[in-house]
């Protein structure tokens, strides 16, 4: 459960046994071809995998690079989140759990969890900051329509960070019957590792698709946005053993990897935005899914190793990139994903991505959910 | 009786209620060599062995400008140790009351440094001070620096609820190095071999979590609570304090049947948040103290 | 350009030549492997085809039938509309047109058109009833973000019917430079035929997928919702030469095929809701995409032949079906698609779909767009 | 001159301006054998051949309770034929003005039956009545029934803007059977062979659409308008009326340089919708009549 200095299992003693059970069940399931096959079937027939690899023809021409988009926005429920929740829901059912617990910010992971729960006949309880409940009323309704219970969290900043804390508190009391379905490569061990494994389907598919699409087989650069970092971790996993340079793009106001300092929160040791006293700072990003003050421990480790680099873009670049991708390719990206696009645009302009480079970018989700936000700022 | 430590529980009744009845030298907490003599555990063991049921009230450091007065009231009401919470922005094991208290203290400008400075102002009290906080504050400048600061401030114990025994090596070394007792937590879900390890490695006392849940008052103590205390006392001679959900004298008495004492936190902070002054909290604790000392009354 | 008594080209003389040019260009393109290949590539790498065939495990068990869902909701932009607009946009570019014109009701076809236009570097002008512009502000913004011009139509009932009329009026003036991208199997010849051909990818894929999924290879029943009827026409096309029974499910208040009378509107002869004088009646459905008073001429013909049957469900059955599918399968369907689900639920209960039947249902789109509507009625 | 029909255009100036100057018997429109003698086309040809520029004003049937008074004013102002629109719910070839007029008439309760009944009340007028409407109303009870009703109401012509020549067979047969002239439309985009077919199969006149667009007033006539009229008159001896966008006497005169006459619709209905009474519309048309009769004035 360690990624160098990061990771670990910094949880209340009451949760240690629950985490250990998840770890044991996951390791056993992951080694079981039956489980792997069942998950692969669900991903194919229900979630729409493999997702396509789309050459961004016009934007590539404009930028002078070959840009390929891994289209997680086309996965069921609108983002890569479904890959992970289907895996965890299947695991929970295998463990005899009857309910999923999840935290959610903008609601994407909550909707995905509610979806997987419905599909597998489990109950779902989703914790969501009260402020997000108000801002994301449509996603709240989607979750309820899917049969999930949505619990507004009134503590702290009433956003994702607090929803995560509350989900952990709730899990303490029900760990014997409920599985905590963490939404990113965060949380106590084995979550960062397990979620990465469930998301590596992105990278594995993209690796094969790049091999078919590129003369070089492997792209020169692999780019993904990073909040907790699950789509990036899943993407990077497919290219870890290649010479591709890995780039994680964070929100300027939520840049755990780029700007955080070592700390412990939500059960894991990693890099967190915090003040000199160690109080966690509230993250700020136009993309609700990047509005998290930390980063998954594997990313902290990849940064320590220099294997991946972490960069930031600001909200203005992000909205401009979203509009540019929409107009050039007919794809309205999630604002999270637009961070990766924004950095590619900047880096192609600055020469950090040299002309002629091949770039794989994981488009983690679709922008439908962000239209109201964009209407306010554009 | 099945008590492995062979103490005479009835002896507790003979003790004076005020903490100074036992009167250990406060200079003990400042002993440079690690303070084995006058450390937290020594004190608690002594009282426990004398038949006294232990009472550790909790206050969130910085919750009011004069928050240390609450600690003084605890001492006056017969506390055997005092737990001072250093508020953290994200108290994931705390229920709504202590979350609210932490938030209020931080909003008032409470900092770890400030709370420890406040502790230093309690140097005249004759009750061990136990600091509780979350990993991130302990690790901010590293556990060695944090434990040294605790010691400097006069604290003799440390509780870190999100630091399970598997992750505790460095903090335990640092605490030991600073002469601070790092108390570990045990929960009803902890399996037997692990419980043994926790009991063995804990210092000061073993913090038995009464239930699968967060801090906060509950209407009743579950059977798991006293069962856990029994399991630990069957494994170790270290004092066992039962915490989480103990809010009435009756619950304290019930908890103390198998445990060596109780931690009372949310029940106090709920009153503090409602505006109760130190003397009112003192009265509340005095009632609890009396019940513990005379459970048949 | 005829389907029995239906179809034809009842357009102003000013548009006859434009229709003829579209027809000629389409016939030539459709016979050109280069065009077919280019479209197939776009559908695969950009739109996410093939879409999966999802066994509705839990609902099947509840209903006593084997229900397979063809997942057009997973296609890019959220519905089958993209199949048609990519075809037409590619055709328009081939014809040297620089702009697409489209009508839209709820905005799905408008968003798809704006998307295809962006992808192929064309301009787009979308006509939308003023009432729909107000009701579907998010989709209006999506279209504009994709670079399309959205023109509110203030005539008549200010909904889809009037937007269609206005798009035709506009086309008259610009037919030399702009292509009218009709959104369903309606309009003057060659549109009903051409759109059906562009949508038959649904049926062709489903046919192959059913052959792999079902011991009988072909389902006993094929069900799709019908507004203008493009997803149904595309689905039926794949099963025309099989013994499968074909069912088109209409909204009770927009049931051109089930309740309409012969007439001519928007350039084609078919079945329309109209009063005794021949004035077209306004359609009413909770699903904006079925809010059209007519039906494509091929459906009128299939009804005449008895090859397909057309049935209706009411708004209450539709919302109940949407919730039931969401809870059973983790799929929130578009309210249009929920019509087909509602009828399957009813027909399985009544025995019209006998126990043990195999049923293919085309889930034409996802329900995200309808969440606000559902919030009001549930 | 290139005029294939060898008429003396200047002769128009010698005619009286009022329509009754030519005076065909209205019983001609009721002739049971198909009415070749006194049908619309016969009348228009005669006037055209006499050198008169033809004027066909339009009114939406049912637009006001006394809408037939507008037709009477047209006649008094020198109309050579009168176009009466039967309002349809979805007038896809009409611009905003006639859309609005149609909507208003339908809102007032106008029906095809009601409009035709109004026509019958114009039986005393000595001007051919041409009904225009959309396919759906013609096909509602079938073109045979519709054309019979037209004839019964005293109409001698029919315009169906969404019925191109390719789709016109049945309606043409029905119209011919009822002695009604079905006028076809030609547009600037119509290719030559097709234009010849339209000219050949049209009855009454050929309706030349002046521009690629809908009905409605325009600030200027494009060159395509008169070019189209020229193309048709080069193909056929049938009268050619130019319509769409003709709203001023100047535009009418310009249009009539190559065409045999003009249709004026939106320019009238815009005034009617603004509240103009029949006499005001009459004055507007009189000015147009005068300009057509004396283009040099």
From TrEMBL, chains B, D:
This molecule's function is given as:
The alpha subunit is responsible for the aldol cleavage of indoleglycerol phosphate to indole and glyceraldehyde 3-phosphate.
Q: Which organism is it from?
A: Bailinhaonella thermotolerans
Q: Which residues form the active site?
A: 83, 94
Keyword Amino-acid biosynthesis found: yes
Which keywords does the record carry?
Answer: Amino-acid biosynthesis, Aromatic amino acid biosynthesis, Lyase, Tryptophan biosynthesis
Report what the protein is called: Tryptophan synthase alpha chain
Q: Which family does it belong to?
A: Belongs to the TrpA family.
Q: How is the quaternary structure described?
A: Tetramer of two alpha and two beta chains.
